[in-house]
Amino acid sequence: MSFTPTSVLVTGGAGFIGSNYLLHVVRAWPETLYVNLDALTYAGNLANLASVEDAPNYRFIHGDINDAELLARLFAENAFEAVVHFAAESHVDRSILDPTAFVTTNVHGTLVLLQAARTAWDGAGTPRRFHHISTDEVFGSLGPEGVFTAETPYAPRSPYAASKASADHLVRAFGTTYHLPYVITNTSNNYGPYQFPEKLIPLVIRNAMKGEPIPVYGNGQNVRDWLYVEDHVKALDIVLRRAEEGSTWLIGADQEINNLDLVHLLLDEVDRVTGKHAGSSRALIRFVADRPGHDFRYALDSSPIEDQLGWKPEHDLNAGIRRTVAWYLDNVPWMDAVLDGAYRDYYSSQYGSRGMN
Ligand code: NAD
Ligand code: TDX
User: Fold this and answer.
1) Domains of the chain, with CATH numbers?
2) What is the pTM of this model?
3) 153-169 pLDDT, tens per residue?
């Protein structure tokens, strides 16, 4: 299967993964128009896209995926052949503090977007794709053994995961009921440039740079599989162009590590690059109250995308961490600019009650 869209709607393209995706595809496919629709919440940052903002095949629209009228107008004006749907509330801890926005954007917003695509594509003679970007968290939590596959039943445990699971179900229901041509990708933890520093890896690097305490939830033994974002966005582009309609792909890196070991790796790399005494930043670690309902472990079977679509991650964890630490140390103004007052309010409500401020 080969699909070459001429006009693509990307939602949430000013966020972490969406902006890395646009930085890759806008350059890789100059004949394809990419229209980025983003509400610019606290997590959206147009500075990420400065190097493509003047490209002739890129356009930015400031708007909300819940705005049905805006979507109808954009579909009419641009004749989109594909939608790549990143827009979401994405942070588990925020969903625990208040789940409301997660249902508004991740569930209702996805429904409004699905309706817009279905209406615009009704009777279309040429191929179309609705590519929904989802997460491994929809499958729940693993013990020390085993991996999730595309057949694993859904068992979301946080409000964030439940909202993403609901969105996945809606996408598949639109495929079954209205023949909407969709693909879904469920991905493990991403890291790399332009990630908002509420997520573990940029938070650790930022606090280490400033000499501030590093919060590790519980005993630090929870395990994640870390995928370098540039590897992820290449996989997404391959799935959009080559995957069969109605298919689901799991994208992981097979780079599992527990949180405490990961934090040590990051701190040791910061010490190495900044010339601090080896191991000295480890003294910043603080064990704080655990995340409620903290999923123990995620791991994905990525062999189908490797065997059938020929994708493989290019970075192992050590290579990815080296590049990531270097990027944040080189981009201090980016970090300072995203940490505005609203984020500081969040940080104190999140960490103040956990015995750290
Ligand atoms: P992010 O929080 O960095 O970015 C989300 C973007 O969506 C922001 O630019 C924000 O402004 C925009 N947005 C939010 N609400 C919107 C709305 N109502 N209308 C339009 N735009 C809106 O998220 P991310 O980490 O880049 O994640 C992108 C997608 O990938 C999400 O769907 C997330 O669930 C999924 N995902 C993320 C990870 C990860 O490790 N970060 C892993 C697996 C899946
Ligand atoms: O301060 C912290 N201390 C800590 O120990 C933070 C922010 C996190 N953690 C732990 C919780 C997790 O076990 O580190 C691990 C990673 O946490 P996050 O960076 O918040 O990611 P996670 O909860 O695993 O979810 C991520 O991966 C799946 C993304 O945020 C989701 O959007 C994605 O769907």
Assistant:
1) 7-191+227-253+294-314+342-354 (3.40.50.720)
2) 0.98
3) 999 999 999 999 999 99
